[in-house]
Design goal:
Length: 247
């Protein structure tokens, strides 16, 4: 297949940071695979609105914790677009729980959604990248993976694991000309923050040197930078996009 356009696959692309990533890649002329799990109507709306603007997008369903579904998503993405140039491991969940109340099931779901999913998706993406001797992977971690958050121990630990995965994989894949980087967002105004009270949000703003929450678009710009050739000599790095919360 002769295709000069680059292709990105983004997990969790129906809303929030994933959606903002999809929009920025599409606007810059990339072919975008919108990975989603349950939010079919949201993702279809996004697919239609971007297609109507003349962008090349394709929504594909896969629960990223399910290896078989992830494999099928990549098979279909390749059937339509050819090889995958960039993978953005963005899908995620959050949960506020005292450490002593976390169940084994909740712990496993947190690690499966962040770590096992990145393992499954990255293995699939590498099928093209290793043979093409090029590619870029961007993982979405969190500043809580860098410094830890009270009442989010399983979230913080799984996001810290993503940082470890990023660094180790960057070393292993560097000789294959594949870069692996990570964005560690601060507090970003998305659906994930809906469970957080206005009072807590205000105190998080107060703790942020830039005195405000971030937007999904601000994270997407950092993801795009790390995915694109603009960062061609950057690998294994954790880019904090947090308004100065973690310095
Ligand atoms: P969000 O809840 O709006 O979006 C998360 C997306 O992941 C949703 O589309 C959801 O359907 C998808 N998803 C969840 N489980 C999935 C599964 N099993 N299979 C496929 N898709 C699944 O949240 P967001 O703020 O846009 O979060 C995006 C990423 O950014 C997450 O990894 C999150 O941990 C990270 N992050 C967010 C913040 C923040 O303050 N919002 C801060 C740091 C890191």
């Amino acid at each position: 297949m002769c295709n000069l356009k680059k292709t990105v696959l983004i997990t969790g692309a129906s809303r929030g940071i994933g959606k903002a990533c999809a929009e920025i890649f599409a606007k810059r002329g990339w072919q975008v695979v919108l990975g989603y799990n349950k939010s079919e109507s949201e993702v279809k709306q996004l697919e239609v609105s971007l297609s109507l603007k003349g962008f090349s997008v394709l929504a594909l369903q896969a629960d990223v914790t399910n290896q078989e579904q992830v494999k099928q998503m990549f098979i279909e993405a390749r059937r339509v677009y050819g090889s995958i140039d960039v993978l953005v491991n963005n899908a995620g969940i959050s949960q506020f729980r005292l450490f002593t109340d976390i169940t084994e099931q909740e712990w496993d779901l947190m690690f499966d959604t962040h770590c096992k999913a990145a393992f499954f998706c990255t293995q699939c993406a590498l099928e093209d990248m290793i043979s093409n001797k090029k590619g870029s992977i961007v993982n979405v971690s969190s500043m809580w993976g860098q410094v830890g958050a009270s009442c989010e121990v399983h979230y913080s630990a799984s996001k810290a694991a993503i940082i470890g995965l990023t660094k180790a994989l960057a070393k292993e894949l560097g000789p294959s000309n594949i870069r692996v980087n990570c964005v560690a967002p601060g507090v970003i105004e998305t659906d994930m923050m809906k469970a957080v009270s206005e009072e807590i949000k205000d105190s998080l703003c107060d703790e942020t040197p830039l005195m405000r929450l971030g937007s999904a678009e601000e994270i997407a710009k950092a993801v795009f930078f790390l995915a694109s050739n603009e960062s061609s000599f950057i690998t294994g790095q954790i880019l904090g996009v947090n308004g100065g919360f973690v310095i």
